[in-house]
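Running co-folding for 5'-O-[(L-methionyl)-sulphamoyl]adenosine.
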Amino acid sequence: MNKYLTTPIYYASGTPHLGHAYTTLVADCYRRYYRLTDHDVKLISGTDEHGQKIERAALAEGTDTTEFIEARSDEFQALWRTLGIDLDAFVRTTDSRHVARVLPFWQNIADKGDIYLGQYEGLYCVECEQYFTTGEECPVHRRPLETFSEESYFFRLSRYQSRLIEHIESHDDFILPRERRNEVLSLLKNSELRDLSISRTSTRWGIPVPRDNRHVMYVWIDALVSYLSALATEDFNAFWPSATHFIGKDILIFHAVYWPALLLSAEIPLPLSLKVNGWLTIEGKKIAKSDPDTIVDPVALIEEIGTDGLTYFFLKGVPFGGDVNFVRQQVYQLLNADLANNVGNLISRFVTLVQRDFSGAIDITSPVLEECDHELLAVLKDGAQEWQDAFERAEPHVAARIFAASAASINRYLQHEEPWNLIKNEENRGRVAVILLVVHSALSSLCVLGSPFVPDIIEKVRTSLCLQGDLCWSSVGAFGSQIRTRKTQSVYPRLSS
Ligand code: MSP
């Protein structure tokens, strides 16, 4: 089965910050999850390089726009490389391949009779590249809205209102978490959609409208089509229908209303699902480049806590869909408690026992398991089912809790069985070997459950346990009668603040 995962394409108007890293790392975690559960996955990202916002940012810096976007786009690509995110495609909306996909998309919609020329008058936030009908300031950027009046092409969005409601109501998982779905449904049911202005004459920095190059396309039309242009033609039918867009709540309406309406008009199947994250905030304020007080450099942070640390914080420390305040001390506490203590100490204690008492290897032909041994393995097996359900419900934080709870169960089992005391009596040697086999099996399962969140740590654990080959989803909860261990460095050193 295939999965096509997309991050938003980020505005090439500023340097990437922690908020951008958040959505991308969530998508990357899902990529690992799907790979594990036997999917062929493509993950794409990119930079959004047209529009007035970009043009103004380049002007403010006194740089040529092309050079400006080149540098910003490079910064995003470099960050994804530093974070170890291996993208299948990176779209730049100024690329000719992308432009070549946008033009027929527009034409297709025009041919349906869904585009007409009119006059736009209203309020606009250039930072969001979004129109507002009322208000004095942008609710996201807290800046005054600008009054725009210009000739514009419009998309007949209003035609699609009832089909959108129908689609969302008949596809429970189209927008997750559910609160976001309800929010969109309530908007669609309680207000009449106005047609959408989809071209600009106030900027030249965009893709010219077919047959009327006085206008360039509204940057959001161009940007949304990146999800299509990122896929090679031969992959389109195989991957597009399984598309999941990972987005922040600030761009929900674009993805849950405008995008599906445009696709309906173009007669392209709608994506499978939108997974909508909340905001990372600093002292309650959204992390955004327009607010320098909120800027945390992701590269400096991963030098302190590692990419696994950052991913783990995003996935376990942030209930998906909600907002969360980034507080360094709390991040450190979470990572020390879960990764350094709960998982790290467990591995080193286990490897020490096998090395010291069995010279690093145990082999038993017909081990006899006690009830408590079966119970521990069942905890892992049952947990794995819940873990998968949680991922599917867009609750990766619940899946991460199951991983941490499973490590805690293994610790409790060891604490209860006390192999370090039993071994003092030579008669118990057989039982101790079985206990260690059970722990080893449980740890192999734990590796599967942890791999979407902390892949580097899991690699180190697997090296200590001499586990080879691909991580195997169907092996969770299974018992193996052989152990080899290798003493290695700690899997996640304690952080000191
Ligand atoms: N270019 C558009 C997206 C076009 S997609 C066809 C855009 N870009 S953006 O750079 O402003 O931000 C995109 C996304 O970055 C947000 O929707 C969100 O996913 C992520 N985030 C940016 N700041 C964030 C936080 N402070 N917290 C969480 N996510 C944040 O919008």
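Result summary
The pocket of 5'-O-[(L-methionyl)-sulphamoyl]adenosine is lined by residues 8-11, 19-20, 22-23, 48, 223-224, 226, 247-248, 250-251, 277, 279-280, 286-288 (CB under 6 Å).
The first helix runs from residue 18 to 36.
Job closed.
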